[in-house]
Amino acid sequence: MVNRLPKIKMLPLQTEEKTRESLVLSLEDIPLAAIEWDESARVRSWNTAASRLFGLHREEAPGKTCKELILQEYQQKAFENLWQSGSGYDEIQTGVYHYRQVGGRIVLLKWVNKIFRDEKASVVKVLSLVQDITEAHQVEKRQQALFRISEAAFSTRELKELYRSVHAILAELLPAQNFYIALYNEKKNTVNFPYLIDEYDQEAPQEMSLSDQAPGRGLTAYLLRKGEPLLIDQAAFKALLAEGEVELIGSMPVEWLGIPLKTGTGAIIGALVVQSYHEEIRYRQEDIDILTFVSTQIATAIERLRAEEETEHYINRLKAMRAIDQAILSSPSPQSIAAASLQPIQSLLPCQMAMVMLLNLPHQQMQPLAYLLEDRIQAWTETSADYFQYVIPSVKRGEVIHVKSLASMAEPNFLNRHIRQFGIDSYLGLPLRCSGEVIGYLFVGSKYENAFLAEHIEIASEVSNSLAVGLQNARLYQETVSLLWREQRLNEISRILTSTFDTAEIYRTVTRLAVELIGFDAGVLSLISDEGDSLKIAALYHLPQPLEHTVIPRGQGLTWKVIEKGEIDYIPDYSLNPDALPQAAAAGAKSLLVVPLIYKGEKQGALSVFSYKAHQPLMPADMALANAIAQQVANAIQNARLFENVQQLAITDSLTGLFNRRHFFQIAQREFNQAMRYNRDLSMVMIDLDHFKRVNDTYGHPAGDWVLQEIARRMNGALRDTDLLGRYGGEEFVILLQETGLEQAKIIAERLRLNIAVSPLTLPASGQKVQITASLGVSEIDEECLSLQQLIDRADLALYRAKQNGRNQVCVLGNDG
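Now predict its structure.
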């Protein structure tokens, strides 16, 4: 507190000389500076205490102005205002002004001013009593500052904000232009610098290891070893250098003051440091006392926040483990368990990348389920077999893999080079073990060197144990569901195969179901042609339609190789195979499973299923399922073909392969009804081979049969796809021409006649040549033709006239008869 000024008995106004002597004499022995000012605001005289305060001899006092005794300009003006005209006598006014002493020290002075006026209220003199209140003010200011620091340390929730506040407040109390806080990590035996302000070293140094090397032998490390406040000037520092106790790190200070941060138990957790690079700035005992108090407050705050952080971390750990357990309980598949567990794992461990994988032992592959990179969970799209084959032996042995720094590896393997592409420098790999069996792998990676400590390995082990149980249960559940689902699909295949003889429907359905059952993305059913010289596409599923017209010559491509080998084959890198179908590869097919279709030793074709993933994992159960499906498909194809043959025999002429008379007229009646309903053109042609009996009589009935077959072939080749050709009986044929009028029908009939008669036929048995001609009758539908029979009768009548007119000609029967 500021000391009160002693009460001074003011003398009554007397003559100027007598008053001056009385004032000087009366104030000589008091401890306060006393100054008498004349009417022009200049010093007349002052006492010995004033000389000591202002650093001037008494003889130098007369004539001084307030500008020489008061530092601030606005304070000077305030003091000069005392000489303004006023309305009172014996006025007393006070003020607090700054003064710069000899040597540059600024002091704070309290002034009490007694104003003497004459009868006209003019100031005739002023008596000032001055007290130095600098120390009292500093004590009060220091107490307030330290209270603010204590308050900040108690209430802060963020250490960086505390560091900034402490630095700002300390700068009011002592030279703190260069200030830093260092924290000691006992587990890692390192020091880091969370807050550093330095006029020469702008950036805080990286985390330093307190080893025997230079970073562990700076002044900060020396202070931590000693555990006591340390004030060192350049001479003392050079002595420590000479003794090898310390080494210079950064710029050499003029003075360095460090206080260890100690907890309530006496443990040293860091250091609080100020330093000076200028000769005029030095530290005193009171600075040490202030920093010691502040270091206690900071250490207490750090200890409190660390305890809160540990409590929060423990709670978060429980929450994260609970989230993983909930994911395990609520997620039905290994993939969903892995995806739901990744973010809780990231909250538990200092990682930027995490991945969960399953071990596929039959194929010696690691199957990534999901991975997290920079807070984004996504499905794994890279080839797993190549990247993770290096860890399979370690995973099978149940070993924990701990890589502290990929950057420091001289020759990283293929996996480590790939991981480095994600910016990862250190990682942990832990086997997922359930009931003694290793079923997978947990991978966590960090961008930072040596990010994973023993405590992190312990947490990761706890996570891996929970994950292993959950993944194993999910996999068993998934396999059970998959078996039931596959059984249902197999039953569905059996039902479809036994409920229809529509081969196109059978081919489409079994291809789709085979793809779904095996868990691939697309499929194709290829059948060997009747001639046996090529493969033709019978059905497609999720593949480009132009593939339907693809014909693969015998012996070419992967499918033919599997068929000829007669065994199932899996091509995991199909898209890279030179024999891959370009259309399938372009559609995204990367893996291929080919199953030959064989019925009682007869090779029928192949069922091919494609995956859009390279190295799609396949279990032995998948291969067995594919073989079972292929066997059912082969049986169904054989049954459908037999049914088709029976159906074909029922509707075709066994000799010529053309529609027989009954089936022809079934189709013709339907087309006739359509033409009548929609007023469309429709024509009919009746054909009779001239003198055919002579062929049978001359060359025999086998030769006659061959001639009928050849004539049927020639006519088929001369007709359009929409024209309907059938055998009417004996050597007679009948043609129904859709959307065709009489004139166009006559042209077609004439082309047929010429096609038949163009050249003699050479009998295959004897080599003899036989000239065959034909008579043709043509009729068309019109308003008078009310039935298919009328249309036939008209064409038959026209045929009769052609024969009557000499044969080997076309006769047309129109509306005129």
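The chain has 22 helices and 30 strands.
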